[in-house]
Amino acid sequence: MSLKIPTARAAWQQSRGFTLIELLVVIAIIGVLVGLLLPAVQQAREAARRSTCINNLKQMGVAFHNYHDARRAFPVGMNCSDKNGAIYTTEKVMGWSWAARLLPFLEEVALSETLNIEQHCPRVHSHRGDLARRITSFLCPSDATTGGNRWRRFPPEEPPGTDDNDGLSNYVGNIGNNIWSDPWGVRCFNLDETSENLALFKTAHTGMLILAAPIRIVDVTDGTSKTIMVGERDYEDNFHGNHGSSLWAGVDEWITMDTAKANGIANKLLTFFDDAGTMVINAGSAGQDPTGAVHGEAVDSYSSKHPGGACFVLADGSTRFINEQIAPDTFRNLSKRSDGNPVGSY
Asked: To the nearest 10°, the Cα dihedral for 189, 114, 313, 154?
Protein backbone atom coordinates (compact mmCIF):
# COMPACT_ATOMS: atom_id res chain seq x y z
CA MET A 1 0.00 0.00 0.00
CA SER A 2 1.54 3.26 -1.10
CA LEU A 3 0.90 6.71 0.50
CA LYS A 4 0.10 9.42 -2.05
CA ILE A 5 1.57 12.76 -1.05
CA PRO A 6 -0.23 15.77 -2.65
CA THR A 7 1.89 18.04 -4.73
CA ALA A 8 2.11 21.81 -4.10
CA ARG A 9 0.02 22.46 -7.20
CA ALA A 10 -2.75 20.15 -5.98
CA ALA A 11 -2.78 21.84 -2.55
CA TRP A 12 -3.04 25.25 -4.21
CA GLN A 13 -5.90 24.05 -6.37
CA GLN A 14 -7.78 22.81 -3.29
CA SER A 15 -7.44 26.18 -1.45
CA ARG A 16 -8.23 28.55 -4.27
CA GLY A 17 -9.67 32.01 -3.36
CA PHE A 18 -13.02 33.64 -4.14
CA THR A 19 -14.10 34.12 -7.68
CA LEU A 20 -14.91 37.67 -8.80
CA ILE A 21 -18.64 36.97 -8.59
CA GLU A 22 -18.32 35.61 -5.05
CA LEU A 23 -16.30 38.68 -4.01
CA LEU A 24 -18.90 41.04 -5.44
CA VAL A 25 -21.66 39.18 -3.59
CA VAL A 26 -19.75 39.51 -0.30
CA ILE A 27 -19.19 43.22 -0.90
CA ALA A 28 -22.89 43.68 -1.68
CA ILE A 29 -23.89 41.88 1.52
CA ILE A 30 -21.52 44.04 3.57
CA GLY A 31 -22.93 47.17 1.91
CA VAL A 32 -26.48 46.14 2.77
CA LEU A 33 -25.51 45.46 6.39
CA VAL A 34 -23.76 48.84 6.68
CA GLY A 35 -26.77 50.54 5.11
CA LEU A 36 -29.02 48.90 7.69
CA LEU A 37 -26.70 49.69 10.56
CA LEU A 38 -25.81 53.32 9.77
CA PRO A 39 -29.29 54.81 10.39
CA ALA A 40 -29.42 52.98 13.70
CA VAL A 41 -26.04 54.43 14.67
CA GLN A 42 -27.15 57.92 13.62
CA GLN A 43 -30.38 57.55 15.57
CA ALA A 44 -28.44 56.43 18.64
CA ARG A 45 -26.13 59.44 18.34
CA GLU A 46 -29.04 61.84 17.94
CA ALA A 47 -30.79 60.25 20.92
CA ALA A 48 -27.66 60.86 22.98
CA ARG A 49 -27.44 64.47 21.78
CA ARG A 50 -31.10 65.07 22.52
CA SER A 51 -30.59 63.59 25.98
CA THR A 52 -27.75 66.06 26.56
CA CYS A 53 -29.94 68.93 25.37
CA ILE A 54 -32.72 67.84 27.72
CA ASN A 55 -30.15 67.66 30.53
CA ASN A 56 -29.04 71.24 29.75
CA LEU A 57 -32.63 72.38 30.16
CA LYS A 58 -33.06 70.28 33.29
CA GLN A 59 -30.06 72.02 34.85
CA MET A 60 -31.58 75.36 33.87
CA GLY A 61 -34.83 74.35 35.53
CA VAL A 62 -32.95 73.63 38.77
CA ALA A 63 -31.08 76.94 38.41
CA PHE A 64 -34.34 78.84 37.90
CA HIS A 65 -35.75 77.45 41.13
CA ASN A 66 -32.54 78.04 43.07
CA TYR A 67 -32.66 81.62 41.79
CA HIS A 68 -36.30 81.86 42.90
CA ASP A 69 -35.37 80.53 46.35
CA ALA A 70 -32.64 83.17 46.66
CA ARG A 71 -34.48 86.14 45.13
CA ARG A 72 -38.13 85.22 45.76
CA ALA A 73 -38.82 85.46 42.02
CA PHE A 74 -37.58 84.15 38.69
CA PRO A 75 -35.16 86.36 36.73
CA VAL A 76 -36.51 88.92 34.29
CA GLY A 77 -36.28 88.01 30.64
CA MET A 78 -34.31 91.21 30.16
CA ASN A 79 -34.09 94.47 32.04
CA CYS A 80 -34.86 97.78 30.36
CA SER A 81 -33.48 100.44 32.69
CA ASP A 82 -30.50 101.08 34.92
CA LYS A 83 -30.38 99.93 38.54
CA ASN A 84 -31.88 103.20 39.79
CA GLY A 85 -34.96 102.86 37.64
CA ALA A 86 -34.07 105.69 35.28
CA ILE A 87 -33.93 105.38 31.52
CA TYR A 88 -31.78 107.02 28.83
CA THR A 89 -29.40 108.36 31.49
CA THR A 90 -26.56 105.84 31.75
CA GLU A 91 -25.17 102.70 30.18
CA LYS A 92 -25.28 100.60 33.32
CA VAL A 93 -27.22 97.38 33.81
CA MET A 94 -29.64 97.69 30.89
CA GLY A 95 -29.84 94.69 28.59
CA TRP A 96 -28.68 91.70 30.69
CA SER A 97 -30.61 88.51 29.97
CA TRP A 98 -32.23 85.83 32.09
CA ALA A 99 -29.34 83.51 31.15
CA ALA A 100 -26.70 85.91 32.46
CA ARG A 101 -28.55 86.10 35.76
CA LEU A 102 -28.56 82.30 36.04
CA LEU A 103 -24.76 82.01 35.75
CA PRO A 104 -24.06 81.69 39.52
CA PHE A 105 -26.58 78.84 39.67
CA LEU A 106 -25.02 77.00 36.70
CA GLU A 107 -21.55 76.62 38.22
CA GLU A 108 -20.35 79.80 36.47
CA VAL A 109 -19.76 81.86 39.61
CA ALA A 110 -16.35 83.15 38.51
CA LEU A 111 -17.72 84.39 35.16
CA SER A 112 -20.67 86.00 36.91
CA GLU A 113 -18.37 87.84 39.30
CA THR A 114 -16.18 89.00 36.40
CA LEU A 115 -19.15 90.35 34.47
CA ASN A 116 -20.60 92.09 37.55
CA ILE A 117 -23.88 92.76 35.82
CA GLU A 118 -24.92 95.40 38.36
CA GLN A 119 -22.37 97.82 36.92
CA HIS A 120 -22.31 97.83 33.12
CA CYS A 121 -24.54 96.78 30.25
CA PRO A 122 -23.18 94.20 27.79
CA ARG A 123 -22.58 96.75 25.05
CA VAL A 124 -19.94 98.74 26.91
CA HIS A 125 -18.57 96.01 29.15
CA SER A 126 -14.80 96.07 29.61
CA HIS A 127 -14.63 92.26 29.56
CA ARG A 128 -15.93 91.79 26.03
CA GLY A 129 -13.94 88.59 25.67
CA ASP A 130 -15.95 87.02 28.48
CA LEU A 131 -19.18 87.87 26.66
CA ALA A 132 -17.94 85.63 23.84
CA ARG A 133 -17.54 82.57 26.06
CA ARG A 134 -19.03 79.33 24.77
CA ILE A 135 -20.97 78.00 27.75
CA THR A 136 -21.85 74.33 27.36
CA SER A 137 -25.05 74.68 29.37
CA PHE A 138 -26.43 77.01 26.69
CA LEU A 139 -25.48 74.90 23.66
CA CYS A 140 -27.44 72.05 22.09
CA PRO A 141 -25.00 69.36 20.84
CA SER A 142 -27.23 68.61 17.84
CA ASP A 143 -26.56 72.12 16.55
CA ALA A 144 -22.93 71.81 15.52
CA THR A 145 -22.33 75.54 14.97
CA THR A 146 -18.74 76.55 15.67
CA GLY A 147 -17.44 79.93 16.78
CA GLY A 148 -19.53 82.77 18.13
CA ASN A 149 -22.80 84.32 17.09
CA ARG A 150 -22.41 86.22 13.81
CA TRP A 151 -26.06 87.12 13.33
CA ARG A 152 -27.30 88.47 16.67
CA ARG A 153 -24.73 90.94 17.89
CA PHE A 154 -23.80 93.61 20.38
CA PRO A 155 -23.06 97.00 18.85
CA PRO A 156 -20.73 98.39 17.61
CA GLU A 157 -20.10 95.15 15.68
CA GLU A 158 -23.49 95.31 13.98
CA PRO A 159 -24.62 94.93 11.20
CA PRO A 160 -24.96 91.17 11.63
CA GLY A 161 -22.46 88.90 9.99
CA THR A 162 -19.49 91.24 10.34
CA ASP A 163 -17.75 89.30 13.08
CA ASP A 164 -18.28 86.22 15.23
CA ASN A 165 -17.26 86.97 18.79
CA ASP A 166 -20.52 87.15 20.76
CA GLY A 167 -21.59 84.23 22.95
CA LEU A 168 -24.07 81.89 21.28
CA SER A 169 -27.03 80.25 23.01
CA ASN A 170 -29.51 77.71 21.65
CA TYR A 171 -32.16 78.59 24.21
CA VAL A 172 -34.68 81.44 24.31
CA GLY A 173 -37.09 82.53 27.02
CA ASN A 174 -40.88 82.56 26.80
CA ILE A 175 -42.27 86.09 26.97
CA GLY A 176 -45.79 84.96 26.01
CA ASN A 177 -47.70 87.23 23.70
CA ASN A 178 -46.47 90.00 21.44
CA ILE A 179 -44.38 92.73 23.08
CA TRP A 180 -46.51 95.32 21.30
CA SER A 181 -49.70 94.06 22.93
CA ASP A 182 -52.18 95.90 25.16
CA PRO A 183 -52.41 97.57 27.57
CA TRP A 184 -49.07 99.34 27.07
CA GLY A 185 -47.33 97.65 24.20
CA VAL A 186 -43.89 98.95 23.37
CA ARG A 187 -44.31 101.73 25.91
CA CYS A 188 -43.21 99.14 28.44
CA PHE A 189 -39.72 100.00 27.21
CA ASN A 190 -40.10 103.62 28.23
CA LEU A 191 -41.48 103.42 31.74
CA ASP A 192 -39.46 103.64 34.94
CA GLU A 193 -39.40 100.40 36.89
CA THR A 194 -41.76 101.50 39.64
CA SER A 195 -44.03 98.97 41.34
CA GLU A 196 -47.02 100.35 39.42
CA ASN A 197 -45.28 100.06 36.07
CA LEU A 198 -43.94 96.59 36.82
CA ALA A 199 -47.53 95.53 37.39
CA LEU A 200 -48.35 96.89 33.93
CA PHE A 201 -45.45 94.94 32.43
CA LYS A 202 -46.85 91.76 33.97
CA THR A 203 -50.25 92.51 32.50
CA ALA A 204 -48.83 93.21 29.06
CA HIS A 205 -46.65 90.09 28.83
CA THR A 206 -48.18 86.71 29.55
CA GLY A 207 -45.10 84.44 29.65
CA MET A 208 -42.50 83.56 32.28
CA LEU A 209 -39.43 85.60 31.29
CA ILE A 210 -40.73 89.05 30.49
CA LEU A 211 -39.37 92.56 30.20
CA ALA A 212 -38.35 94.26 33.43
CA ALA A 213 -40.77 92.57 35.82
CA PRO A 214 -39.81 89.36 37.66
CA ILE A 215 -42.43 86.59 37.74
CA ARG A 216 -43.01 84.60 40.92
CA ILE A 217 -44.38 81.09 41.31
CA VAL A 218 -47.60 82.51 42.78
CA ASP A 219 -48.12 84.43 39.54
CA VAL A 220 -48.35 81.17 37.57
CA THR A 221 -51.97 80.42 38.27
CA ASP A 222 -52.24 77.98 35.36
CA GLY A 223 -49.67 75.78 37.11
CA THR A 224 -45.90 75.66 36.73
CA SER A 225 -46.15 72.21 35.11
CA LYS A 226 -48.30 73.70 32.34
CA THR A 227 -46.26 76.77 31.41
CA ILE A 228 -43.15 76.97 29.22
CA MET A 229 -40.08 78.69 30.67
CA VAL A 230 -37.41 78.20 27.97
CA GLY A 231 -37.27 76.47 24.59
CA GLU A 232 -34.81 75.80 21.79
CA ARG A 233 -33.87 77.90 18.79
CA ASP A 234 -31.28 76.52 16.38
CA TYR A 235 -28.55 78.59 14.74
CA GLU A 236 -29.26 78.17 11.06
CA ASP A 237 -30.68 75.66 8.62
CA ASN A 238 -32.51 75.39 5.33
CA PHE A 239 -35.86 76.28 6.89
CA HIS A 240 -34.94 79.34 8.92
CA GLY A 241 -31.92 80.87 7.21
CA ASN A 242 -29.01 82.56 8.96
CA HIS A 243 -30.75 83.78 12.08
CA GLY A 244 -28.14 83.01 14.72
CA SER A 245 -30.28 81.59 17.50
CA SER A 246 -29.70 83.67 20.64
CA LEU A 247 -27.15 85.47 22.82
CA TRP A 248 -26.71 84.22 26.38
CA ALA A 249 -25.41 87.51 27.81
CA GLY A 250 -28.08 89.95 26.72
CA VAL A 251 -28.70 92.82 24.34
CA ASP A 252 -27.61 96.44 24.05
CA GLU A 253 -29.13 99.38 25.90
CA TRP A 254 -31.28 100.48 22.97
CA ILE A 255 -34.00 98.15 24.21
CA THR A 256 -35.34 101.29 25.92
CA MET A 257 -36.03 102.95 22.58
CA ASP A 258 -39.64 103.43 21.46
CA THR A 259 -38.92 102.16 17.94
CA ALA A 260 -39.52 99.07 15.86
CA LYS A 261 -35.88 98.12 16.42
CA ALA A 262 -36.71 97.16 20.00
CA ASN A 263 -38.87 94.34 18.68
CA GLY A 264 -35.96 92.71 16.86
CA ILE A 265 -33.61 93.18 19.80
CA ALA A 266 -36.01 91.45 22.18
CA ASN A 267 -36.05 88.49 19.80
CA LYS A 268 -32.35 87.90 20.50
CA LEU A 269 -33.30 86.48 23.89
CA LEU A 270 -37.04 85.82 23.89
CA THR A 271 -39.73 84.26 21.74
CA PHE A 272 -43.38 85.30 21.68
CA PHE A 273 -46.61 84.86 19.74
CA ASP A 274 -47.60 87.41 17.16
CA ASP A 275 -50.81 89.45 17.12
CA ALA A 276 -52.75 86.60 15.55
CA GLY A 277 -51.65 84.24 18.33
CA THR A 278 -49.73 81.99 15.96
CA MET A 279 -46.51 80.09 16.56
CA VAL A 280 -45.20 76.74 15.44
CA ILE A 281 -42.08 74.73 16.21
CA ASN A 282 -39.64 74.41 13.29
CA ALA A 283 -41.58 76.86 11.13
CA GLY A 284 -40.90 76.06 7.50
CA SER A 285 -40.14 72.37 7.94
CA ALA A 286 -42.14 69.73 6.10
CA GLY A 287 -45.83 70.05 6.90
CA GLN A 288 -45.42 73.35 8.76
CA ASP A 289 -46.59 76.83 7.85
CA PRO A 290 -43.43 78.84 7.08
CA THR A 291 -45.15 82.02 8.28
CA GLY A 292 -46.33 80.52 11.57
CA ALA A 293 -43.90 82.43 13.76
CA VAL A 294 -43.21 85.83 15.26
CA HIS A 295 -44.64 88.38 12.81
CA GLY A 296 -44.37 85.70 10.15
CA GLU A 297 -40.63 85.34 10.68
CA ALA A 298 -39.56 81.75 11.15
CA VAL A 299 -36.14 82.93 12.32
CA ASP A 300 -37.59 83.98 15.67
CA SER A 301 -39.69 80.93 16.40
CA TYR A 302 -38.75 77.90 18.47
CA SER A 303 -36.70 75.48 16.37
CA SER A 304 -34.12 72.74 16.71
CA LYS A 305 -31.96 70.25 14.87
CA HIS A 306 -33.86 67.39 16.56
CA PRO A 307 -36.17 65.67 14.06
CA GLY A 308 -39.84 66.37 14.64
CA GLY A 309 -39.79 68.95 17.43
CA ALA A 310 -37.76 70.77 20.06
CA CYS A 311 -36.83 70.51 23.74
CA PHE A 312 -38.35 72.72 26.44
CA VAL A 313 -38.16 73.25 30.19
CA LEU A 314 -41.37 74.17 32.01
CA ALA A 315 -41.78 76.49 34.95
CA ASP A 316 -41.74 73.61 37.44
CA GLY A 317 -38.28 72.55 36.18
CA SER A 318 -39.53 69.52 34.26
CA THR A 319 -38.46 68.99 30.66
CA ARG A 320 -40.38 68.00 27.55
CA PHE A 321 -39.70 67.19 23.94
CA ILE A 322 -42.66 68.84 22.22
CA ASN A 323 -43.69 67.56 18.80
CA GLU A 324 -43.78 70.20 16.07
CA GLN A 325 -47.30 69.06 15.20
CA ILE A 326 -48.66 70.17 18.58
CA ALA A 327 -52.12 71.74 18.35
CA PRO A 328 -51.81 75.55 18.00
CA ASP A 329 -54.23 76.24 20.87
CA THR A 330 -52.34 73.89 23.18
CA PHE A 331 -49.01 75.48 22.31
CA ARG A 332 -50.41 78.97 22.86
CA ASN A 333 -51.85 77.98 26.25
CA LEU A 334 -48.49 76.51 27.28
CA SER A 335 -46.95 79.93 26.69
CA LYS A 336 -49.33 81.77 29.03
CA ARG A 337 -48.93 81.58 32.78
CA SER A 338 -52.39 82.69 33.91
CA ASP A 339 -54.98 82.67 31.13
CA GLY A 340 -57.07 79.96 32.78
CA ASN A 341 -57.32 77.84 29.63
CA PRO A 342 -56.63 74.11 30.02
CA VAL A 343 -53.50 72.86 28.28
CA GLY A 344 -54.73 69.36 27.50
CA SER A 345 -52.47 66.55 26.32
CA TYR A 346 -49.52 67.14 24.03
From this structure: 50
